């Protein structure tokens, strides 16, 4: 299992011409974790957090002013109504944890129920996609196949819910309409209101770092936006597939992103270093290239403050990720370059119009499981 941050962010290979816009809603309920809220809900637009709610504060915290405006224009008392719905969802999630503990024959211990749903829009050809995934203790539990409108149950404990949801024809049609139209309409609305934030471009700062002479050389890019960046090492103009270790794109505290790619030079004589370079590509700017030269590398000996800041930034990001979505698990087919997190999330049927983008959900079971 991984924390949310390591999972939330997308990597699109070397194709930086097309942008996939997205709305994602994550809900996580837990039991047996005294230092983590029993229920957390986070909404993201283009990987930017726009709303946060947890069971400790029992209120929605809006992270972007433009989201506040978009919601108010749709529903004047959005925050009040949506907050009441979130409180109801806490109770449904608590019930779902009890249901799953019973199905898995569990009693005590720490347990996590999760759900993620959302939609995507390709700005190049206007194609869309939608998804809904449920997870328990970091493993797949249920997922919606939008093409066939059936639920996929990878474990036998999910069959009861799968069969019940598969036979709910009205709800399946509702979900189809939501993921193919309604969610996309809300995404377009958010993109319109948040254009100055979501569609800006900030140039990355690129550094070469090395903790010790025997350590890999790290190409570290930070301060860039959006997060769809490509960073790779090449030798004599050819991209390296070996010797490299790609890190995950992580958020900075200021809303920008960072990423690092390690280059292992154990078997490379220093006189050949000049053949290597790190390349950073981001849509809207010229490629950035930095030659592997000892004079360009910052080390513990040369700049302790920078290396320490780099390490502490990574630690801080992981801590933030744990607070937002502890133990979120992502899994997609190898043919899909994007990763989706899993989760579990149910809403009451009241006031659903103020929870968009949010399809009306159902408990995992009715009565006994």
Automatic annotation (TrEMBL):
Positions of region (Disordered): 336-369
Record InterPro entries: Ig-like_dom, Ig-like_dom_sf, Ig-like_fold, Ig_C1-set, MHC_class-I_related, MHC_I-like_Ag-recog, MHC_I-like_Ag-recog_sf, MHC_I/II-like_Ag-recog
Bias type Polar residues, positions: 345-355
Domain Ig-like: 204-289
Cleaved signal peptide residues: 1-18
SMART domains in the cross-refs: IGc1
Record PROSITE patterns: IG_LIKE
A biological-process GO annotation: immune response
Regions that span the bilayer: 306-330
Gene Ontology cellular component list: external side of plasma membrane; extracellular space
Keyword tags: Glycoprotein, Membrane, Signal, Transmembrane, Transmembrane helix
Family the entry assigns: Belongs to the MHC class I family.
Protein name: MHC class I antigen
Organism: Melanogrammus aeglefinus
């Amino acid at each position: 299992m991984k924390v949310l941050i390591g999972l939330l962010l997308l990597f699109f290979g070397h194709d930086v011409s097309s942008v996939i816009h997205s709305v994602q809603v994550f809900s996580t309920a837990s039991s047996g974790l005294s230092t983590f809220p029993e229920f957390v809900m986070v909404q993201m637009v283009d990987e930017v957090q726009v709303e946060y709610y947890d069971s400790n504060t029992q209120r929605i915290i809006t992270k972007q002013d433009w989201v506040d405006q978009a919601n108010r224009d749709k529903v004047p008392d959005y925050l009040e109504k949506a907050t009441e719905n979130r409180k109801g969802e806490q109770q449904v999630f608590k019930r779902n944890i009890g249901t799953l503990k019973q199905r898995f024959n569990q009693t005590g211990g720490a347990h996590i129920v999760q759900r993620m749903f959302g939609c995507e829009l390709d700005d190049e050809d206007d194609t869309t996609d939608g998804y809904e995934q449920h997870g328990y203790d970091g493993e797949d539990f249920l997922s919606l196949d939008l093409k066939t409108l059936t639920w996929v149950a990878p474990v036998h404990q999910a069959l009861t819910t799968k069969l019940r949801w598969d036979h709910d024809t009205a709800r399946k049609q509702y979900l189809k309409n939501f993921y193919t139209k309604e969610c996309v309409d809300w995404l377009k609305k958010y993109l319109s209101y948040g254009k100055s934030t979501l569609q800006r471009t900030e140039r990355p700062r690129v550094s070469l770092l090395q903790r010790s002479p025997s350590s890999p050389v790290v190409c570290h890019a930070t301060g860039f936006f959006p997060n769809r960046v490509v960073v790779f090492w090449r030798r004599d103009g050819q991209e390296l597939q070996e010797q490299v270790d790609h890190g995950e794109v992580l958020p900075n505290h200021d809303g920008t992103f960072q990423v690092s790619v390690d280059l292992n030079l154990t078997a490379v004589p220093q006189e050949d270093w000049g053949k290597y370079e790190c390349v950073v590509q981001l849509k809207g700017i010229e490629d950035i290239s930095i030659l592997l030269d000892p004079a360009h590398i910052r080390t513990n000996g040369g700049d302790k403050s920078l290396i320490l800041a780099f390490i502490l930034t990574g630690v801080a990001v992981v801590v933030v990720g744990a607070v937002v979505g502890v133990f979120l698990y992502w899994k997609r087919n190898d043919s899909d370059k994007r990763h989706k997190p899993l989760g579990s999330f149910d809403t009451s049927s009241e006031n659903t119009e103020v929870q968009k983008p949010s399809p009306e959900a159902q408990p995992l079971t009715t009565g006994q499981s």
